[in-house]
């Protein structure tokens, strides 16, 4: 048993330190409870003066070459993956008490995200987000067809990152992305995971406590919606943009503070789906293969990720749909057993499923509400949000009929068979979907591709223009203002 586990067994409150631009601050001034499990953790008081950098301060990373930033991040990634790293070990111990994901998945999340801190990956991310990455390192000279000169720079922004609670690995990526755009960053942690971000930053400080990356980062926790904190911090005189992940309530809470000079970059709630064509029933082996791929997409982060499928639109009659559902349930149950951490569904969702199970003429249910997986077959999508390894298979005569269920809240669409994807991608985009992938590949993403229909780093920066008059151009006489 670890020291942290012993503390929990004894009823002690977990300690969640803050990180202020290179300095770790411990304290027990405030006690909070984690969102999902209700576990207590203690934090210091927030010193608001320490998390705000005055506008007169030039961002520490502004004149640090991008290559040097990448090298530092790569070294941090190596240290994060080192099994001897005490900060990461302690982080996993503590997070195992507050997070719904099992310990093995938490460890895999942090280690997998640390693999993002790779030189080739980081450069690819920058190159995909910026037509000319040199704009991050200095002023890029331009001249339009009328002869007007200008200089453009992707200037270091001031960002508040409202981190998600479902994916500890996002802390690693958010820190890296904040460094790549040379931002001054304040990370607002979630109650499910007030540990990962300081652990990553402490690892970086252990490399070099005075490094500009370290001096650009702060991480604190406050309860979302705490006006005493947010009325002070969510102001354009302190920050340029709020980069917010989370559920509808979290995003709505941020929106009320927006105004001139303070923008929102929102990774708001999304639902991902699967679309499976009649070709899945070509042979018994094909049916097994398609069901396995669909289960892979359902089970991304135990269905806690936005990319995890919750609805499968299946081109089939009722009899074939039941054959698919039976196989899908078995594959989900296998993966649930392997991943562990099976938590019974909430009372409200249990009651919804119990009611549907009684309506045999409209619905059929496979599985149990004990957290090992549930598959619901219906003729139209259920009117609740499937969670906890629960998936709704909707039988349709044609996948064309499924398009009407695609909205701007549809993030990823896993598709089978693969050769039909080009026929649907424009219509899916018109409906609001943001990503179409081969069924079974919802989890991994192509490096540097748009996320939630945008290039995030391009949105993060403060685009600054210096215009410097008109120069003589052949065939053009006079000034623009004449």
TrEMBL record:
<comment type="similarity">
    <text>Belongs to the LuxC family.</text>
</comment>
<keyword id="KW-0521">NADP</keyword>
<dbReference type="InterPro" id="IPR008670">
    <property type="entry name" value="CoA_reduct_LuxC"/>
</dbReference>
<dbReference type="InterPro" id="IPR016161">
    <property type="entry name" value="Ald_DH/histidinol_DH"/>
</dbReference>
<keyword id="KW-0560">Oxidoreductase</keyword>
<dbReference type="Pfam" id="PF05893">
    <property type="entry name" value="LuxC"/>
</dbReference>
<dbReference type="GO" id="GO:0003995">
    <property type="term" value="F:acyl-CoA dehydrogenase activity"/>
</dbReference>
<dbReference type="GO" id="GO:0008218">
    <property type="term" value="P:bioluminescence"/>
</dbReference>
<dbReference type="GO" id="GO:0050062">
    <property type="term" value="F:long-chain-fatty-acyl-CoA reductase activity"/>
</dbReference>
<protein>
    <recommendedName>
        <fullName>Acyl-CoA reductase</fullName>
        <ecNumber>1.2.1.50</ecNumber>
    </recommendedName>
</protein>
């Amino acid at each position: 048993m670890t020291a942290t586990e012993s503390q929990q067994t004894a009823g002690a409150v977990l300690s969640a330190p803050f990180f202020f631009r290179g300095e770790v601050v411990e304290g027990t001034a405030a006690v909070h409870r984690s969102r999902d499990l209700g576990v207590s953790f203690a934090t210091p008081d927030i010193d608001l003066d320490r998390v705000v950098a005055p506008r007169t301060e030039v961002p520490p990373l502004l004149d640090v070459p991008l290559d040097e930033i990448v090298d530092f991040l790569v070294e941090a990634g190596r240290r994060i993956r080192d099994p001897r790293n005490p900060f990461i070990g302690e982080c996993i111990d503590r997070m195992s008490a507050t997070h719904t994901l099992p310990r093995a998945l938490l460890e895999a999340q942090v280690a997998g995200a640390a693999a993002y801190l790779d030189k080739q990956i980081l450069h690819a991310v920058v190159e995909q987000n910026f037509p000319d990455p040199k704009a991050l390192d200095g002023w890029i000279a331009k001249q339009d067809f009328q002869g007007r000169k200008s200089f453009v720079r992707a200037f270091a922004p001031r960002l508040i990152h409202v981190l998600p609670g479902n994916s500890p690995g996002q802390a690693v990526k958010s820190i890296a992305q904040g460094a790549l755009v040379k931002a001054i960053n304040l990370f607002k942690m979630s109650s499910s995971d007030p540990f990962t971000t300081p652990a990553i930053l402490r690892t970086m400080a252990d490399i070099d406590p005075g490094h500009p990356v370290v001096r650009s980062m702060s991480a604190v926790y406050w309860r979302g919606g705490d006006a005493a904190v947010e009325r002070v911090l969510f102001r354009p005189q302190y920050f340029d943009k709020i980069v917010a992940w989370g559920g509808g309530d979290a995003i709505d809470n941020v929106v009320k503070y927006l105004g001139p000079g303070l923008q929102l970059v929102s990774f708001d709630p999304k639902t991902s789906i699967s679309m499976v064509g009649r070709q899945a029933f070509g042979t018994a082996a094909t049916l097994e293969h398609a069901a396995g791929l669909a289960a892979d997409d359902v089970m991304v982060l135990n269905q806690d990720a936005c990319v995890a499928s919750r609805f499968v639109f299946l081109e089939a009659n009722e009899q074939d749909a039941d054959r698919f559902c039976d196989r899908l349930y078995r594959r989900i149950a296998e993966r649930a057993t392997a991943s562990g951490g099976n938590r019974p569904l909430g009372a409200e969702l249990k009651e919804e499923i119990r009611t549907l199970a009684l309506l045999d003429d409209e619905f059929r249910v496979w599985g149990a509400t004990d957290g090992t997986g549930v598959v619901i077959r219906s003729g139209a999508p259920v009117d609740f949000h499937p969670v906890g390894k629960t998936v709704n298979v909707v039988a349709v005569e044609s996948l064309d009929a499924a398009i009407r269920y695609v909205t701007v809240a549809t993030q990823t669409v896993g598709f089978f068979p693969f050769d039909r994807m080009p026929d649907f991608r424009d219509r899916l985009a018109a409906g609001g979907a943001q990503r179409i992938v081969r069924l079974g590949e919802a989890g991994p993403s192509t490096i540097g591709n748009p996320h939630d229909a945008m290039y995030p780093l391009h949105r993060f920066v403060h685009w600054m223009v210096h215009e410097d008059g008109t120069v003589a151009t052949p065939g053009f006489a006079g000034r623009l203002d004449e």
